[in-house]
C-alpha cells in the first residue's frame, strides 16, 4: 500500500515550516528591531469602508500590535464591489465584528479595540485617542472628519485624513500631502475651508487630482470600482507604517 503523500516530505521541510513565523518576510525587510516597534505600536482607523478596510488589513499583515476599528455600519450587498470584508457570507453583519474576526485570523496576538459607533463631534470623547500612535480618518462625514482632526491636533497625535475616492477610475492619481496643497477634489476643498476657519494647519491627507467622473446612471451615492479605494487604503497604511518605523 502506498504511503500518504505527507510521509514523502523531507524532515528539513517540516523544520522550516515550524521555524518560520508570520512576519519573517517583513523582518527581512525592516529588521527585528523595527518589526518589534510595529508590534508595540497602536493605530486607530475610523471608517471600515473601501479605504479604511484595506488600511486595517495592511496594518494587521504588517504586524501592528494594536488596532482600533471604528464603524457603526453593517456590510451591505453594494459594498461587495470594493470592500475587502464584503462577501455574500458577511452581508448583514457589523463591519467591526467581521474585521475583529478577520484580524484574529491573520494574527490572534493583535489587540483589536472595536467601537461600534458613528463618529460625531459630540462623541469624540469616547475614543481614547491619546493611547494610539497614529489616527487614520477614513470616514466620509465632513463634521466627523473635522472633529477628529481637531481632536488629533489638540492631543498631538499624528493623523492622516482620506479625501474623496468616489467617482474615480485612476488610482495612480492619489497623492499624500498637506491639505493646503490639495486641489480638484471637492471634499478636500470643503475640509480645507473648514480647517482654515478654525486656524488649523499642517494636516496630512491623501487626495486624488483626477477630476471626478460622470455618473453612468442615476443611482444614489458616489460611484466606485474595486481598485481605487483599495489603493487609497494601502497608500495610507504605507504612509502610517513608515512613520511608525521612524518614530523614537
Features:
alpha/beta; seven-stranded mixed sheet; Rossmann fold
Please give a structural write-up.
- The N terminus is likely disordered.
- This protein has a single domain, classed as NAD(P)-binding Rossmann-like Domain (Rossmann fold), CATH 3.40.50.
- The chain contains eight helices and seven strands.
- Helix 4 crosses helix 8 and helix 6 crosses helix 7.
- The protein is 38% helix and 13% strand.
- It has 248 residues and is of the alpha/beta class.
- Helix 5 links the parallel strand 2 and strand 3.
Short summary:
This protein has 8 helices and 7 strands, in the order αααβαβαββαββαβα. The longest helix has 20 residues, at 227-246. It is 38% helix and 13% strand.
Topology:
Blueprint: H1 11-19, H2 24-30, H3 32-39, E1 42-46, H4 50-62, E2 66-70, H5 95-106, E3 111-115, E4 134-137, H6 142-155, E5 159-162, E6 174-178, H7 186-197, E7 204-208, H8 227-246
Parallel strand pairs: 1-2, 1-4, 2-3, 4-5, 5-7
Antiparallel strand pairs: 6-7
Helix pairs in contact: 2-3, 3-8, 4-8, 6-7
Order of helices and strands: HHHEHEHEEHEEHEH
Q: Give a count of the beta strands, DSSP E runs of length 2 or more.
A: 7
CATH topology label: Rossmann fold
Largest sheet composition:
7 strands, mixed
The structural class is alpha/beta
Amino acid at each position: 500500500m502506498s504511503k500518504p503523500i505527507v510521509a514523502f516530505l523531507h524532515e528539513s521541510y517540516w523544520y522550516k515550516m515550524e521555524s518560520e513565523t508570520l512576519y519573517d518576510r517583513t523582518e527581512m525587510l525592516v529588521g527585528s528591531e523595527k518589526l518589534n516597534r510595529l508590534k508595540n505600536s497602536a493605530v486607530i482607523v475610523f471608517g471600515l469602508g473601501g479605504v479604511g478596510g484595506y488600511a486595517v488589513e495592511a496594518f494587521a499583515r504588517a504586524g501592528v500590535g494594536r488596532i482600533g476599528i471604528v464603524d457603526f455600519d453593517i456590510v451591505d450587498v453594494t459594498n461587495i464591489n470594493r470592500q475587502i470584508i464584503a462577501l455574500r457570507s458577511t452581508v448583514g453583519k457589523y463591519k467591526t465584528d467581521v474585521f475583529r474576526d478577520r484580524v484574529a485570523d491573520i494574527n490572534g496576538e493583535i489587540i483589536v479595540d472595536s467601537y461600534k459607533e458613528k463618529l460625531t463631534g459630540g462623541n469624540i470623547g469616547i475614543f481614547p485617542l491619546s493611547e494610539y500612535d497614529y489616527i487614520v480618518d477614513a470616514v466620509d462625514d465632513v463634521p466627523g472628519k473635522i472633529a477628529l482632526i481637531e481632536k488629533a491636533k489638540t492631543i498631538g497625535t499624528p493623523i492622516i485624513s482620506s479625501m474623496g475616492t468616489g467617482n474615480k477610475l485612476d488610482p495612480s492619481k492619489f497623492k499624500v500631502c498637506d491639505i493646503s496643497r490639495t486641489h480638484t477634489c471637492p471634499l478636500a476643498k470643503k475640509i480645507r475651508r473648514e480647517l482654515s476657519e478654525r486656524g488649523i494647519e499642517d494636516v496630512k491627507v491623501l487626495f486624488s487630482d483626477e477630476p471626478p467622473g460622470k455618473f453612468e446612471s442615476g443611482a444614489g451615492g458616489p460611484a466606485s470600482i474595486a481598485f481605487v479605494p483599495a489603493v487609497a487604503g494601502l497608500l495610507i497604511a504605507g504612509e502610517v507604517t513608515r512613520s511608525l518605523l521612524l518614530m523614537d
